[in-house]
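lol ok so funny story. i was supposed to be doing the assay writeup but got distracted and ended up predicting the structure for this chain instead. priorities right. anyway since i did it might as well share w the group, maybe its usefull for someone
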Amino acid sequence: MKKPAKKVFSISLSLLVGAVLLGGVFYYVGWRDIFEEIGSLHVVGILALAGNVFLTSIMWIVGWWVILRGYGIVIPFHRVIGARLSGFAVSYITPSLYFGGEPVRALIAADSSSAPITRIFATIVVERFLGGLSLVFFILIGGFFAFISPQVTHVEKQAVLIGVPFISFWIIVGLIDFAGNFKWISRIIRLLGRIFRRWRGGLERAANKVAETEDEVYTAFTKHWRATLLSLLIQLLANLLVYIRPLIFFFFSSHTTFTFPELSLVFTLSIIMSTVLWITPGGLGTGEAALIGIFALVGIAKDEAVAFSLSYKFFELLVVAIGLFYLFHKGIGRMWHRVRSSSRHSQ
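and the output, tada:
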């Protein structure tokens, strides 16, 4: 089986697994109760949810655009929107916890700019890294409240104790590596080339490209630090919008409010569970099952938890649809050939 066919088969299988799991959730919870809960949002609540999702997407777009401008890369704003949403769409439908669409985003951006693709990819690395850094900020707060909460079981506290340091560790390692330009990633690739001599040439070329990207990322923390700081603030706002999603949904559906510790607890456990259970497109089925247990800790019924997940997922899928439409309209294959051709001419 060829690689593209394997990829399609893998996604199709994970989608089937997700659909089966979601069907099981519907059977366990009761689909009528779920849709009745969604219906209780009314028009204002639905608009509030839509506004939250679309405003979050705008924050992601602007955060990346700020970094591009900081690097001196001028791309029409509508192309930035298309590239960012296309990358999000590919990441969303592949079981990879929102990762996987970065090469697609880089190709679309490179097709609209004369900047080297390594520099464009560096802006994506910086944007994703800043997103992770802002995520850790909220996770650490939530981890503290989860650890001291009497509602959280011993097993769940152990998961928090493992999950929070694990996620934070890699973000901090990345911060040290990029800010200090230690080039740990390219060095590891070169080390692999010495170990696996058969692929030494290919790994050496890959290491050189990665080293170029690492140099470009380093400039984000030195020459372009103002744009980097502004983008970080925008990423914090984007994650804040995700953080308050339960507050918005349950206020309009049942006039339920949450305390700051409760929101922090739900946010942190959701991120940890997503890291472990993102094995289907968009976390279909697995996300709903996990949220039943998470929301139970703050007194939310299982039908309400599933309704929350499906409501936001609906609007996220609208964003995914926009990204996929743009991607198919542009033609990723044609862009790849154009980018390769321009790279050869510039050498």
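The longest helix spans residues 117-148. The radius of gyration is 21 Å.
back to the writeup now i swear
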